[in-house]
Amino acid sequence: MADIVNMELPDTDREILAAVDLRAEYVESGVKDVLDELDRDLIGLKPVKQRIKETAALLLVERARRRMGLAHETPTLHMSFSGNPGTGKTTVALRMADLLHRLGYIRKGHLVSVTRDDLVGQYIGHTAPKTKEILKRAMGGVLFIDEAYYLHRQENERDYGQEAIEILLQVMENQRDDLVVILAGYADRMDKFFESNPGFRSRIAHHIDFPDYSSDELLSIAETMLAKQNYNFDEEGRTIMADYIKRRRQQPHFANARSIRNALDRARLRHANRLFEASRGPTDAMTLSTITAADIRSSRVFAKAAAEDQTP
User: How high is the pLDDT of residue 21?
Assistant: First the structure.
């Protein structure tokens, strides 16, 4: 690490650094650990990871400038995560909270995840206390608002979401040194939300788009999910799972990794029932841990495809 010379201002006991080794700060602050963990735990999402790394670099430099006594303002850290369900938005928000805490931009580093129902009341006088209670819990950390466009339903004249929005905007501006707000949801709906709520757009500095996973990435995600529970595919099971993913992606309500997790839960259910029905004696660990083609092929995805093939 480069030599650091300390100078002391006459009117304060705060240390002013004359030089700083950014690479050493990157490692010693723990930022490297957070980004390495992000790379390790999340498959794909290269553009998202790149944006997070760029944001981390900006914050690291700004922290160094502050410690060197250079003129600075706390950067605006409120964010928007746009993408389809199951693309890792909540997971990245958790990592971002950790990152901001390690760099000293938030006091606690916790994440409070909410939806409209947590913020908006059902009658007059109900919304303000609900919203303020959530904000109180989130202070010092990150407030993650999923499907943020549901905060205000313009078609409903008696909707109380606008009150929650006004409170949020005020806190986002006046207490941005102690709270980071991340808004999340579908890309097209988030665009419309910002168009109808320009106050939010002006306070959001970082807009990050989360792409859908490819079929190969989803298969890798499936294998990773199984491995964490000490399961695995056999060779044919892996092939059928790849086929399942391609078919499922073309169907409605597909939610990326979330849909894969649900499919694996059902496959494990079929696997357990298959073993139980066939059990006539001891079952070894490999059999208890191997998902086969039969456990996946029984899915309604294949049944629907077979029915469509038979339709004249």
Answer: 86
